[in-house]
Structure formats: C-alpha cells, structure tokens
Amino acid sequence: MLKILKYSFYDLMRSRWSYVYFAFYLLLGIVLLFLNNDLSKAVITLMNVIIVLVPLIGTIFGVMYYYNSKEFTELLLAQPLKRSSIFLGQYLGVALSLSMSLILGLGIPFVFYGLFKSAAIWDFSLLLITGIFLTLIFTALAFNIALSNENKIKGFGYAILLWLFLAIIYDGIFLMTLIMFEDYPLDKVSLIGTMLNPIDLSRTLILLKLDISALLGYTGAVFKQFFGTSFGLIVSFSVLVIWVLLPVWRISVKSKKKDF
Amino acid sequence: MVSIQNLHKKFGKNQVLKGVDLSINDGGIFAVLGPNGSGKTTLIKSVLGMVIPNKGNIEVLGNNIKKNSDYRHKIDYLPQIANFPSNLKVKELIKMIKDLRKNTNEDERLIKLFKLEPFLDKKLGNLSGGTKQKVNIVLTFMFDSPLIILDEPTTGLDPISLIRLKDLIQAEKTKGKTILITSHIMSFVEEVSDEIVFLLEGKIYFKGTIQDLKTKTKQPDFEHAIASILSNNHA
C-alpha cells in the first residue's frame, strides 16, 4: 500500500491542481492576516471558508482523481497487489496531498505573522485538524461514489449533490425541524443532529473553542455544556473518526467485488 | 498450469460466460479465439482476478485465485489496449513497475530490441499507438514468469516489430513457458499457436490443434475452418 501511496502522491505533486489549491490557501491566509490585523478574527473568517470549501475540494478532487487514474488502476490490478491496498493507497495519496496543501498554504503565512507567539495557536491548530478530518472524510466519500458509478457524469453529479446536501440542505432541514418542534425539548435532538453531519460537527467544535457560542442561539448553552467538556470533545472526535473509517471500510469492501 | 471449472459471469443482464471448463497444461502456446463479445477478454480477466466470476473455480499453478493475489507474481499480462497514466515518462513507468514487482535487467535488452531508446524520456500520453504497444510488450516480457497472457498482442505493430514479437514468443516457449494468446489475426494465430480454444456464446466450442479443427470442419485452411464454425452457428 505504501508504494501505491508514494506513486499517487508523487503523481499529484506534479499535477497543476495541487499547486492551485496550495496557492489559493496561501493567498487567503496572507490577505486575511494582513488586511485584518487580528489573528483571532482571521481564524473565524478562515473557519467559514474552510468548513465549506475543504469538503467541496475533497469531493471534487477525489472523484476526479479516481476517474482520471483509471488506466493507472487497471495497470496496477494486473500486478501482484491486493485490491484494497491499491485503492486505499490511492485514497491516502489524494487525501494526504490535499491536507498538505491546506497545512502549508495556511501555515506559512500564519507562521510569518507570528503564530507561535500568539495565543491563537490552539484555535488555529484545531482549525487545521478539523480541516484535515474534513479532507479525509470527503475524499473517502468521493471515492465511494466513484467506485459505485462507472459513468463519470453521474459520479460527479452525485458527488456535488452529496456536498450540497451536507453543506447546505442538511442545515436547512435541521433548522426547519427545530422550528416545527419548538414546543418540545430539543437539546438532545439538536446535539445528535449536529453529530450526524461532519460539517456541522466541525463548525460547532471550532465555534465553541473560539468562545463565541452565543452565536449558536438558544441551544448554545446546551452545546457549551456538552462540547465544552473533555467528554464532549472526545465524543466529537470519535464521531469524526467514525466518519473517516466507515467510508474507508466501504472502499475496501466495494473494491474487492468490482469488475475491471 | 491453469484449470477453470464451471465459470459463469454476468454483466448486468448480459450473460457472458456460461459454464466454461478449461484446463491448460504446462508449456506451449494456446490461442483463445472467438467472435466479438464471445467472452475472451472476460475469461482472461477472470484468470487475472480483474473480473470476479459469479460462479466457478479457477486455479493457477495449483493455487485457488480467490485466496490471495500472490499468484499474479507468476503471470505476465499484456492488456488489450495500452492505457497508461499519460503524464508519466516511459522510463518512469518501467521503473515503477519494477519497483512494484521485482527488479530485472531484462528491460534493457527489450528496449534495444524494439528500438525504444529515443522514447524513454517522452511522456506516455504523447506516444503513438504502436509505440505504446511496444512499451506494453517490454513491460510484459521483462519478468521471467511461467505463465504469459497476451490479449491482442499484435495491435498497432509494424511488420518488423511483429516479427520480433513472434521471435520473442517462440523464445519464451522454448524456455518451457505457457503462453495464452487472444487475437483476431488468424494468420498470426496459425503461425504461433500449438493449440486453440474456441469460445462461442460463453462456452468452449472447440479445444484442440489446428489440424483437428480442419478435420472437424472439413475445411482445407484455418481461416475457412473458423469461418465455417461462425456461419454454421449464426446462419
């Protein structure tokens, strides 16, 4: 698996898109920091961008890489390699190169700005960690979609729909349910609802860490009570880990049954 | 060498293989023939583990292929269409495959044989079909495996390269290897193969030497023998 990972990673490092992605984050980091002049405000703005953009890029890149490397995959399949290691290697190659673009692109301007002397370093690290989690989750979901759809256009369509659902539609439905059932105690429901969507979960985690839970409205207090404790933090990270492991597991199962 | 029992494969509603039983002995050149869509490539891909059969059993060198992928160390496979990652250079591709399988120096001799030196630093996406096929052949023949599977090996080759390929196949045969070929070029099949396996509508219609086939169909030459099978079954 490590050899496949190496070649996929190497392949992506030579692709123009990794640099575009890297350059985008570099630019974003520089602009936010030097126009804002306030590290924690920059982190909040960054959060809003990351929460929406990282899943989108992860999804599109994952689907695109899978379909584009079909030839490479077929070449590998005839070699004495395990199927699961071929696909997991490719998946990790994509996810790691995306994570690296994210970490370096945002990290470099922040380091130059004086991150290590600032108190925002923990907020910033949490931001990067959730960013990496989101990359791992959405790239894995994208690989799942691509493995299940031979048709490229369909695959892209489903991938975009998935992103749209989790990033936007889910929140809408969630909000509607909260309004419809506002007469009932909803703290548990909203907690579970947040847990089930990795994007919402990441957003809540960062917001609470930034101590602006007032933004969360009437459930903010409940959230603070839950996510603020170390128990809540452990549960949230476990849920994120499950969000990574489940699709990765399905990649390995699905790839074993597929015809090429 | 290869033993296949009761192999079934369906793609959606399309039943491609309907109970193939085949055993291929050690040594010699076997040609798998059949009309378009008769399941030649599916059969070969099943042996390689790229297509998962619905039913049936395949053994390669005594190992059931379902259990693990190590048996593929003993197979050299030439795919039908030379699809390679287009942004890799020829040199890098050869190096990568060696890294994934095992090291060998045989590639240098094959590169010289097919005059590929000027292309080593070119990207695979920029090569012509015939040159890609030559790279494909180098990748296949550079490992010294007991079973060689060639899916349409002659595609896009010029006459000189075709002669070199035939020599290469014969040389491998004298080393005692088993070679499995599919091809639509009947003269090529007639020239190189010891035995043929004829697939028709997902089943083995005939297995034996070319002479047997001529006798069976009462035709004087090989091409007409094949044509008579096809016209008798599709008339």
Would you kindly provide a written description of the structure presented here, covering whatever features stand out?
With 260 residues, chain A is mainly alpha-helical. Chain A contains 11 helices and no strands. In chain A, α2 packs antiparallel against α3 and α2 packs parallel to α5. The longest helix of chain A is centred in the middle third of the chain and has 31 residues. Chain B has 235 residues and is an alpha/beta fold. Helices cover 36% and strands 26% of the residues of chain B. Chain B is built from 8 helices and 10 strands. Chain B has a 6-stranded mixed β-sheet with strand order 6-7-8-3-9-10, sandwiched between helices. A 4-stranded antiparallel β-sheet of chain B has the order 2-1-4-5, with helices on one face. In chain B, β4 and β5 form a beta hairpin. In chain B, α3 packs antiparallel against α4 and α7 crosses α8. The longest helix of chain B is centred in the last third of the chain and has 16 residues. The mean pLDDT of chain B is 86. Chains A and B meet through α1 and α4 of A and α2 of B.
